[in-house]
Amino acid sequence: MKEDKEIYDLIIIGAGVSSTFLCLSIYKINPSFKILILEKNETFPQKVGESLVDLTAVFVDSLDIKHLLKAHTKKTGVRFLFNESNQNDLSGIAEFASPTLPGLINGYHLDRSIFDQQMLDEVVSKGAVVYRPVNIIDTSFRDFENILKIKTGNVLKIVQSKWLVDGSGRNRFIANKLNWNFKNIPLKTGAITAHFKNIAPETTWDTKTNAYWDKNAVGLRKFSTTHLMRKSSWWWIIRLNETTTSIGVVFDKNKVHFNDYENYFIDQISTDAQLSIITKDASRSKINHVEALPYVCDKLYSKGIALIGDSGAFIDPLISPGMELIGQQSIWLAELLTEDKSNNKFKANAWKKYSKTFYKAYSSRLSIYVKAYDFMHSYDIFSAWLKQGNYIYFGWIVFPSVLFKNRLKEPLTFNLIERIGLKYFTKRFDKIIERRTAQKRISVIGKNEITYSSVRVPKNWRFIFVPIHLLFKSLWAYFKLELKELKFLFKP
Ligand SMILES: Cc1cc2nc3c(=O)[nH]c(=O)nc-3n(C[C@H](O)[C@H](O)[C@H](O)COP(=O)(O)OP(=O)(O)OC[C@H]3O[C@@H](n4cnc5c(N)ncnc54)[C@H](O)[C@@H]3O)c2cc1C
Known about the structure:
- This protein is an alpha/beta fold.
- It has three domains: about 1-70 and about 110-180 and about 295-345, 3-Layer(bba) Sandwich (FAD/NAD(P)-binding domain); about 75-105 and about 190-290, D-Amino Acid Oxidase, Chain A, domain 2; about 370-445 and about 455-490, no CATH class.
- Helices cover about 35% and strands about 25% of the residues.
- It is built from 13 helices and 22 strands.
- The strands form four sheets. Strands 5, 6, 12, 13, 14, 15, 16, 17 and 22 form a nine-stranded mixed sheet that branches. Strands 1, 2, 8, 9, 10, 11, 19 and 20 form an eight-stranded mixed sheet that branches.
- Helix 1 runs parallel beside helix 3 and helix 1 packs across helix 8.
- The model has no long low-confidence stretch (mean pLDDT about 90).
- The protein binds flavin-adenine dinucleotide (FAD).
- The site of flavin-adenine dinucleotide has 36 residues, from helix 1, strand 9, strand 12 and helix 8.
- This is FAD-binding domain-containing protein.
- InterPro entries: FAD/NAD-bd_sf, Flavin-dep_Halogenase_NPB, Flavin_halogenase.
- It comes from Putridiphycobacter roseus.
- GO terms for molecular function: monooxygenase activity.
- Keywords: Membrane, Monooxygenase, Oxidoreductase, Transmembrane, Transmembrane helix.
């Protein structure tokens, strides 16, 4: 490699959110960090990762880019619709509703083709150099000396940096080159997705009434992230704007089998009681298949190289933890990289701590999902599961992160007692669903049955009562479930 070299503090491969979240986190600490981003595509396609959850909203707020969200749709909450009997008249649909109430934080539905571009423009305005479209022709990785030969347009360039970050998503450009492999994990899910134009109005397929939502939420039910819960699978309905809606299914690969993913998707949307109405007159984009959703690389960094976002790990899209984890990684990596530059010293222990915490967080999160696919179609069991999730999510992550900015970088991890608790509850839920399946029973659902779990982030000291309140609500939901089962056991 004889050409003149361009030298940077950091080169990032890929210009998705991992890359831009990291850049902005670095510039917050050191605005003169020299960053080069290499992106292979000229424009960003529409992609999944469209529901921005509360914690990601707190993170985005911390980067001072809230203004970018104005181009996107304000998310009004999350809803889960159950149709356990799969009846066609839709009158037996039950709902778990978690409306967003006016308060400090708000999620969004993102058009990723727009958002990723906005984010890239933002980092360029702060000084990052971007080569795009780029083709990486040759690589040389040595400890703290990464050299890449690239072609952008008709120009060949040699670029070098002490640190190289792989933000190339599922392409895993560097991880693949270095043969960093996957760890074995106990969850096997896949997804099929598409975008639709002009889906049917909610009045034709949604629950008929939800007075509490209509009165209290920040906006209309149709702009909530809506989940249709089915056996071993769930569908998302995410309206990106008035005309375009993202629809996708995530399924347990041990239970859902098909030969052709397109046929499976089309068959489901034409036969499911709700989906067939939703998509009847809508036009559809190309159908995409993500064959294996969860994975985690057995290595996250070496001397001079680090993985971020989907290049290193992904859990499961249920309740959208994707960008949340990337935000936490960005803050952490930004601290490590800027410290490395200012001290010119590799802090091995700090990197080890980062990696250990990340893996612990990954397995903690994974443990939440592993059994959930067995009972996610059941209204009362899954509602109890969701209430526990709300307690953990808001009580342990969102509130502390709003109050203590340092907490924002800490991903959720469980200690031994918490792990035992979680194991107990998921085992119980699993046992109940097993028994119900054997006895051909489903949840007993009243007319217009709705479980609410709305959370307001108070602006004063009363916030401390919210986690306690959520804890009691989740325990109460669990006891109610056990009581129902007991009643059934003692029924003459
Ligand atoms: C089905 C599904 C649903 C999801 N839903 C949600 C959700 O609702 N909310 C949420 O927060 N997250 C969600 N996620 C996760 C989220 O989409 C991802 O975690 C996030 O988009 C990953 O961002 P990234 O920057 O790591 O990768 P990407 O967004 O994939 O970006 C990688 C970039 O690298 C570029 N690139 C690739 N190879 C090269 C190369 N060789 N040279 C140069 N550039 C390259 C690509 O062109 C791309 O621009 C979902 C994921 C899936 C699979």
